[in-house]
Design a protein that fits this description.
The protein contains five helices and no strands. By secondary structure, the chain is an all-alpha fold. About 20% of the residues are buried.
Length: about 190
């Protein structure tokens, strides 16, 4: 039963609305259409002819969506876009080989950058400690190493942009060592 005052649901045995306190009568049902009025047209139930239902094959040339419901090219682009985290999420949730390939390659690119960053930090610290004893060589070495690391960072930024853009375009970039590793994980 519905309260005619506040339109909240009320148990059928209640004498008053628990929400507003309005006394209820046995005829406190929602009002129907006025007498003589035509009911509003109802939408057809069931699958639409334009939208394939579950278990139907996609149209020829279309790539079926993965577990997330995203187009595989979009999922691959998002795996690259969100780097390590996106790679892990899509590796765990998707079964599409294209998306899994992109996810593993995305994780691999991040790990290569991380290893290079740690190596750079160690080398820079070591060279800084050694060259700090010679005041003339220290600034030159520090500037050279910093500029070298900036170039490495720029190269990784360009690689990241290329991977994201090509994945969203539906193309695959195969990186030399990482592609072989990604192929193994994409097939499993």
């Amino acid at each position: 039963m519905i309260c005619p005052n506040c339109h909240s649901f009320v148990p059928a045995t209640a004498e008053r609305c628990p929400t507003c306190g309005q006394p209820l009568t046995a005829t406190s049902e929602p009002p129907g259409p006025p007498a003589g009025a035509t009911p509003p047209p109802q939408e057809p139930r069931g699958p639409s002819p334009e939208v394939p239902g579950p278990g139907t094959a996609p149209p020829p040339g279309a790539t079926p969506p993965g577990q997330t419901g995203l187009d595989p090219h979009v999922a691959a682009g998002l795996a690259y876009l969100f780097s390590f985290l996106g790679g892990i999420v899509f590796l765990l949730t998707e079964r599409n080989p294209l998306v899994r390939f992109a996810a593993v390659q995305s994780i691999g690119v991040f790990l290569v950058y991380l290893v290079l960053d740690v190596a750079y930090s160690l080398v820079f610290s070591l060279i800084t400690a050694v060259l700090s004893l010679t005041p003339t060589a220290f600034p030159v070495a520090a500037i050279a190493l910093t500029d070298l690391w900036r170039l490495v960072g720029l190269a990784f930024l360009i690689l990241w942009v290329v991977l994201v853009v090509t994945a969203f375009q539906g193309r695959t970039v195969r990186l030399p060592v990482l592609a072989g590793i990604a192929d193994r994980y994409a097939a499993s």
